[in-house]
Amino acid sequence: MAQHLAFGIDIGGSGIKGAPVDLETGEFTAGRLRIPTPEKSTPEAVAQVLAELVGSFDLPKKAAVGVAFPAPMDHGVVRFIANLDQSWKGVDLPALLHEATGREVTAVNDADAAGIGEQRYGAAHGRDGTVLVVTLGTGIGSALIVDGVLVPNTELGHLEIDGFDAESRAADSAREREGLDFASWAQRLQRYFETVEMLLSPDLIVVGGGISKKHAEFLPLLDLRAKIIPAELRNAAGIVGAAALAASDAERSRKKKRKR
Ligand code: BGC
């Protein structure tokens, strides 16, 4: 039988957040818990926080656990890492977290998780065609979903635009770091999104990340062919999407076992 509850975790540069998710509705079944990301965000330190987070909830033994991680995930292995400790490179995240929590863990890129969250329960629900979910935070994350199917690890935050790594100019952290007003930041976003649009011709762009709650300040300033709208799940999207992806994973391995 398919599980209706899974646990989602979102690992970010400043906080590690987790909550149990009702997979029918995409809503949390208990309050989200947030633990600050350890200053030295090594795999060992982060794994300890994760064990604490999972242990704080009374989860059914078989509940799937999904982790959204801010790096491209090559079948669970971190390929490169922009915004956490460099020692993450090459780490097998599900193996590390299995050791720390005793549970089977599915690890996915954080923007892919957010994309799936928005597609199943939020702003991109029921949308066919090419949907691009872009998260603006410490970095820029991207999820490309074509007719409901995720193309994982697109990493469009690292496109080189005008000689710069795009996220170093257009992420929300760049706006904060440089004290840009929304009009100046929107100019950078325009350059970013028009480049992405030229490459992929999306039908819909969904903008997520914490700053998306202030969408009225910058989305109307953008001039694009594609419709561009704010995310609905905002910062919950990573947790919800990771939980949903973990549940699908668990279901797939159950089916495989049954066939054997
Ligand atoms: C990382 C991506 C991640 C994004 C948002 C980028 O620097 O390379 O994997 O999705 O930041 O966290």
Characterization of this structure:
The chain is α/β, with parallel strands linked by helices and 260 residues long. 34% of the residues lie in helices and 25% in strands. Strands 1, 2, 3, 4, 5 and 8 form a six-stranded mixed sheet that branches. A five-stranded mixed sheet has the order 11-10-9-14-15. The model has no long low-confidence stretch (mean pLDDT 95). It binds beta-D-glucopyranose. The site of beta-D-glucopyranose has 16 residues, from α3. Pfam families: ROK. Belongs to the ROK (NagC/XylR) family.
Strand and helix layout:
Blueprint: E1 5-11, E2 15-22, E3 27-28, E4 33-36, H1 43-55, E5 64-69, E6 73-74, E7 77-78, H2 93-101, E8 105-109, H3 110-121, E9 130-136, E10 140-146, E11 149-151, E12 160-161, E13 164-165, H4 166-170, H5 172-178, H6 182-200, E14 204-208, E15 227-230, H7 237-259
Parallel strand pairs: 1-5, 5-8, 9-14, 14-15
Antiparallel strand pairs: 1-2, 2-3, 2-4, 6-7, 9-10, 10-11, 12-13
Helix pairs in contact: 1-2, 3-7
Bound molecules: beta-D-glucopyranose (BGC).
Residues 70-72, 82-83, 109-111, 135, 137, 139, 141, 155, 157-158, 167 line the site of beta-D-glucopyranose.
Protein name: ROK family protein
Family: Belongs to the ROK (NagC/XylR) family.
Organism: Xylanimonas allomyrinae
